[in-house]
Specification:
By secondary structure, the chain is an alpha+beta fold. The chain has 5 domains: 69 residues; 87 residues; 83 residues, 2-Layer Sandwich (GMP Synthetase, Chain A, domain 3); 74 residues, no CATH class; 94 residues, no CATH class. It is built from 8 helices and 27 strands. The strands form 9 sheets. A 6-stranded antiparallel beta sheet has the order 7-3-4-6-1-8, with no helix packed on it. It has a 4-stranded antiparallel beta sheet with strand order 14-20-16-17, with no helix packed on it. A 3-stranded mixed beta sheet has the order 11-12-22, with helices on one face. Helix 1 packs across helix 2, helix 3 packs parallel to helix 4 and helix 4 packs across helix 5. It is extended.
């Protein structure tokens, strides 16, 4: 679509008016010019309306509610952007100089994190149970705004939002870290594109798309996924996942697992409940309590092949293997399917293809230590430094698998989001906090950190 400027439209309108009317009086302020101005405004308004309508219909330029409506029309039910979650928890206690026993601060009392003026409300009554007790019983709070803005370090919630008789202050005794931002417009577009490319199963985009849809209350959500290949193993793909905290797949040891309680007779193959690690030691299969010889253990499919067929009523048990639990286990079920639940887990993997789901390794195997040199203009430097640590942590933990951490981006974020910062003099990292460079992880690694690992001087 050709977009014309107001000057171009006006010139075209005047030329047409002169050609059609024969009038040559195009003095500024003349009747013909005034008519041209009115027509120009109307044409410009129509052009803008057509342009906005066109943009709203395109995946790449639609935003906000227009983008959500387009995704709802184009994608199957249930596929939509992930909504922001509310930060909750972070026990708070109220303080007072003195007072009678059983003073109650009612549920719903507003409290504030002064840095950013973020408001919360208590979720239960808080009580000064003893005479002259200086602090009340701890209660949790819920942020009134959605997203990570509601996350707060210990002691950051520090202001009463309303007057409570006899109460002079409030502090949160523990941090709140469960507020998450919803998917951005670009993230929603990425999910839509991945879905379209994932309709053909077992392709790389299908693995990534389906992994990113896994969200289990017990384990959290897959936030990053990446496929890498084993050059020494054709047909083998490794699907790396991460939950944004570097804890998406704990290794779970299995001391003993029953393969069959009472064999029907003639069985030679059994399947484990979970897919064993390639690094698992060779387990022991027992037939009626006696170790079985000649057993083949097929990894990573978790298949046991007996050398001698089972006899009716025999008990078979396997001992001593390990598997990835948590989100890795859930994603593996999505990829390979679940024989006892094919409705919810039909599987997307192709025949002859081996897809192993693993957690992305954490760079240096520990939260990255970062030290930042700051020049501040603030009377409450401790609060500002805690907020800066939170900003840096959120940036680091948003990095995808194999993505570089840029020192310049840390400096840019600090300077653009914290008015109290006059200058950032250095950003160093590493076990001894003495490395002054960007951080480049391996393709299968993620860089992760915590507020406690961010220091500033």
């Amino acid at each position: 679509m050709l977009i014309r400027s107001r000057e171009d439209i006006r010139a075209g309108v005047l030329a047409n008016l002169v050609a059609r009317t024969g009038t040559t009086d195009i003095r500024e302020g003349g009747v013909l010019v005034q008519v041209a101005e009115v027509i120009t405004d109307e044409v410009l308004s129509m052009q803008n309306a057509v342009w906005e309508s066109r943009n709203a219909s395109l995946l790449g330029s639609a935003t906000g509610a227009d983008l959500d409506a387009k995704l709802a029309d184009a994608l199957p039910d249930g596929i939509q952007r992930t909504a922001a979650t509310r930060a909750t928890g972070g026990f708070v206690q109220f303080t007072r100089p003195s007072g009678p026993a059983m003073t109650v601060v009612p549920a719903g009392t507003p409290v504030i994190k002064s840095l950013g003026s973020v408001r919360y409300v208590t979720t239960a009554d808080s009580t000064f149970t003893l005479l002259d007790a200086p602090t009340s019983s701890p209660v949790s709070v819920a942020c009134q705004r959605l997203g990570s803005i509601g996350n707060a370090g210990a002691l950051e919630i520090d202001t009463l939002g309303s007057t409570v008789d006899g109460v002079t202050g409030v502090k949160n005794t523990s941090s709140i870290n469960n507020g998450t931002d919803g998917d951005s417009d670009e993230r929603a577009r990425e999910i839509a594109r991945l879905y379209i490319r994932s309709v053909a199963r077992a392709v790389e985009s299908a693995l990534i798309y389906n992994a990113l849809q896994v969200d289990v209350a017990e384990y959290g959500r897959v936030r990053h996924a990446k496929v890498v290949y084993d050059p020494a193993g054709p047909g083998k793909a490794i699907l790396l996942i991460d939950d944004g905290a570097g804890s998406s797949g704990p290794v779970v040891p299995v001391a003993s697992e029953t393969l069959v309680t009472s064999a029907s007779g003639g069985e030679t193959r059994f399947f484990l409940e979970n897919r064993p690690l390639l690094s698992s030691p060779v387990p022991v299969v027992k037939r009626d309590g006696v170790p079985e010889a000649g057993v083949k253990f097929i990894r990573p499919w978790g298949q046991v092949i007996l050398g001698t067929a089972a006899v009716a009523l025999e008990l078979f048990v396997i001992e001593g293997y390990s598997y990835y639990g948590g989100l890795c286990q859930e994603v593996q079920k999505v990829v390979n399917g679940q024989l006892n639940d094919i409705v919810n887990f039909p599987g997307i993997g192709g025949a002859g293809c081996e897809v192993i789901v693993k957690p992305a390794s954490v760079y240096d195997s520990v939260p990255l230590r970062i030290d930042i040199g700051l020049i501040l203009n603030s009377d409450d430097q401790a609060t500002v430094r805690a907020a800066i640590a939170r900003t840096v942590t959120e940036y680091v933990n948003s990095l995808g698998i194999g993505e570089t951490l840029y020192r310049g981006r840390i400096i840019e974020l600090i300077m653009s989001t914290h008015d109290e910062v006059v200058n950032v003099t250095y950003v160093r990292h590493g076990p001894s906090i003495n490395v002054d460079s960007d951080v480049n992880p391996a393709e299968s690694e993620v860089i992760r950190t915590t507020d406690e690992s961010i220091t500033s001087t």
